[in-house]
Design brief:
- The chain is mainly alpha-helical.
- The chain is 69% helix and 6% strand.
- It has a two-stranded antiparallel sheet. Strands 3-4 form a two-stranded parallel ribbon.
- Helix 1 (22-47) runs antiparallel to helix 2 (53-83) and helix 1 packs parallel to helix 3.
- The chain is rod-shaped.
- The termini are far apart.
- The mean pLDDT is 90.
Length: 126
């Protein structure tokens, strides 16, 4: 407790423990979902290539790319939130590793979804 000069009052700065960023957690969840959807793209595209699996693969590709882009954007927002300086009584956010993992998983999931669709189209056309 610090005394305020010239008054009988004091100032107390409460120590607020750091909080894991919800954006970082959301980025990781969206990135993992993007990777799981990309596996569906590859499975439908390869296993059911001659029975119309390319259509299902294309639909899941849209979902995988959207989830991957959401993970990347959310991870970048989380890194910005975590890096922001906090005042003495403000909430500090942690989770830089979660945000980085979400960004990388989202990028990998989007890329794998597009590669799976390309593989499905290549198998269908040959």
């Amino acid at each position: 407790m610090e005394a305020v000069p010239g008054t009988p009052f004091g100032v107390v700065h409460l120590d607020v423990p750091p909080v894991i960023s919800g954006l970082a957690t959301g980025a990781l969840v969206a990135g993992i979902a993007s990777i799981l959807v990309s596996l569906l793209v590859i499975c439908f595209g390869v296993a059911f290539a001659n029975e119309g699996g390319v259509w299902a693969s294309g639909a899941f590709t849209v979902l995988g790319v959207l989830a991957g882009v959401a993970a990347i954007v959310t991870g970048l927002l989380a890194r910005r939130q975590i890096g922001r300086p906090a005042g003495p009584s403000a909430v500090r956010f942690t989770g830089r590793g979660l945000a980085a993992a979400g960004i990388s998983c989202g990028a990998a999931g989007a890329l794998l979804s597009l590669l799976g669709l390309g593989l499905a189209l290549l198998i269908t056309l040959t």
